[in-house]
């Protein structure tokens, strides 16, 4: 069963906060839920499906209780920052199967003001990874160095990704890093885990977001434009029993699945929203999704290709996780929200892509050096 | 610099040695690196596990390796997190065992030693944690304590 055209994102809300010491993560979820429902013109009583991921305080039962939801479809997919991209697709599947007609997806967290996510101590991988200081930047640095070694990718090419995000963040009044940076600034910023510098990393912020996914029947009743779900794919890439290859991500599987379901190709895409935990994540993902050949990502991002609105492939037009925000250390939600803005024509005028008809959203959840969830979704502005 | 002294740059991280991996942890306590090998296809997966995903009914043998490997990728972590907060800088790496799997690990280096992809390293065990001995790898330079003449630049 295809989900092409089976559902629409008709409510989207991004929490404006970036430093939120005075409200709980649960309250962030609630504010985002009500924001997205108001955007859609719906209320809590309309919701019959609820999807959250691992960062939701107390899990889906506690959050449904807190929000006052009565639902008949639930999903708690946890593939890190890619969860929310996956969950929108799962909501579409559930809607296509008649399991619900108004699905709510919420996320929120406070890694800036509160505790960062802890790694569970009971995974089979723990004794073989926890003793080594496998931090997020270090994991992505291992992938970056191997990519440099195999393909000649440079620090300046990585930096060009940050520069593109920063040019967009200038127009986002809520962006945590609302300042244009140069390639020189990125490569001269302190090394965190070589070859990655501080400015190759995303920002650390509080915040959250929510989405409302509805059936075509509900969508037609509402007085709000949305984003039609055209296709989606998901995958897990892992250490493969020791045959680990650090030069690609799970997008090599999730991407083609999404394109096939949507019946489009990379050349058809008008704007991309790619979870940009680090600059290397974007370069590898662009290659894996087929926007350029493997190994060409570094050269592809130079010379303004990612700059909105006129670049060859405008990317992360809100500033992305590299500059805008990174609530709960998970970027998939806010990537999806910005894609919806672009398709509605509601992005900032300075970065709004003209005649934006097709957007691609991609999330990477986990670690490039070990294992990750990958989720790709293609959205359209078609109303029919 | 002795291997034991070199290990002190890393924090002691307690691990839980699960019972089904007892052959691995017993060998590690003795400073030996063993892999679980499928008796049908010869696969030696990492992390070790007492089964072959392709041949779940096959006998798995624990075989000893020489512990020689080459660096597949590496990073010098300047900002450690959690229990590694005060351990920076340290080297996180993926190494490839000779005829074997790629392994996430630390590499113990000599003072000011530059690493490069393809550089040979060998297995050493850190015996300080009570729950199990931790596998790391060491460069030839660090093992012998001799500065590496004409150190190569990193990739």
TrEMBL record, chain A:
UniProt cross-references to Gene3D superfamilies, sorted A to Z: 3.40.47.10
InterPro entries to which the protein is assigned, alphabetical: Thiolase, Thiolase-like, Thiolase_C_2
Lineage of the organism: Bacteria, Bacillati, Actinomycetota, Actinomycetes, Propionibacteriales
Organism: Nocardioides immobilis
Protein known as: Thiolase domain-containing protein
Domain Thiolase C-terminal intervals: 237-380
Pfam families found in the cross-reference section: Thiolase_C_1
GO molecular function, one term: acyltransferase activity, transferring groups other than amino-acyl groups
């Amino acid at each position: 069963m295809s989900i092409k055209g089976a559902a629409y994102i008709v409510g989207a809300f991004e929490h404006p906060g970036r430093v939120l010491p005075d409200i709980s993560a649960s309250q962030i979820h609630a504010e985002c839920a009500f924001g997205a429902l108001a955007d859609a013109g719906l209320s809590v009583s309309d919701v019959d499906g609820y999807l959250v991921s691992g960062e939701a305080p107390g899990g889906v039962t506690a959050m449904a209780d807190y929000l006052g939801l009565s639902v008949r479809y639930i999903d708690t997919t946890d593939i890190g920052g890619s969860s929310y991209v996956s969950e929108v697709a799962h909501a579409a599947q559930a809607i296509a199967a008649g399991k619900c007609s108004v699905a709510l997806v919420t996320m929120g967290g406070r890694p800036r003001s509160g505790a960062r996510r802890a790694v569970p101590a009971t995974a089979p991988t723990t004794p073989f990874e926890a003793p080594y200081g496998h931090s997020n930047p270090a994991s992505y640095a291992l992938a970056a160095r191997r990519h440099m070694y195999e393909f000649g990718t440079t620090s300046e090419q990585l930096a060009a990704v940050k520069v593109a995000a920063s040019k967009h963040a200038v127009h986002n009044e809520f962006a945590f890093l609302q300042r244009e940076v140069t390639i020189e600034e990125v490569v001269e910023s302190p090394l965190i885990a070589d070859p990655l510098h501080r400015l190759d990393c995303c920002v650390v912020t509080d915040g959250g977001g929510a989405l409302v996914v509805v059936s075509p029947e509900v969508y037609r009743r509402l007085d709000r434009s949305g984003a039609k779900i055209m296709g989606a794919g998901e995958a897990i890439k892992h250490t493969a029993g020791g045959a680990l290859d650090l030069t690609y991500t799970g997008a090599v599987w999730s991407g083609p699945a999404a394109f096939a379901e949507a019946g489009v190709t990379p050349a058809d895409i008008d704007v991309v929203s790619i979870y940009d935990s680090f600059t290397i994540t974007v370069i590898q993902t662009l290659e894996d999704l087929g926007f350029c050949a493997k190994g060409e990502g570094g050269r592809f991002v130079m010379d303004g290709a990612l700059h909105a609105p006129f670049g060859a492939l405008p990317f992360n037009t809100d500033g992305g996780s590299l500059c805008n925000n990174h609530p709960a250390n998970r970027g998939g939600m806010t990537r999806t929200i910005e894609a919806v803005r672009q398709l509605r024509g509601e992005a900032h005028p300075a970065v709004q892509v003209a005649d934006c008809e097709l957007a691609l959203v991609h999330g990477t959840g986990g670690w490039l050096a070990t294992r990750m969830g990958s989720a790709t979704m293609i959205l359209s502005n078609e109303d029919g | 610099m002795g291997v034991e002294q070199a290990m002190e740059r890393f924090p002691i991280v307690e691990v839980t040695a699960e019972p089904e991996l007892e052959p691995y942890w017993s060998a590690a306590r003795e400073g030996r690196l063993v892999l679980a090998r499928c008796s049908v296809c010869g696969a030696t997966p990492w992390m070790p596990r007492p089964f072959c995903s392709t041949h779940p009914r096959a006998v798995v043998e624990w075989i000893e390796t020489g512990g020689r490997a080459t660096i597949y990728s590496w990073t010098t972590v300047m900002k450690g997190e959690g229990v590694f907060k005060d351990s920076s800088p340290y080297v996180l790496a993926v190494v490839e065992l000779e005829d074997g799997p790629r392994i996430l690990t630390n590499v113990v280096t000599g003072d000011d030693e530059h690493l490069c992809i393809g550089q040979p390293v060998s297995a050493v065990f850190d015996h300080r944690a009570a729950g199990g001995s931790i596998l790391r790898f060491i460069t030839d330079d660090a093992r012998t304590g001799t500065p590496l003449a004409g150190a190569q630049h990193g990739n």
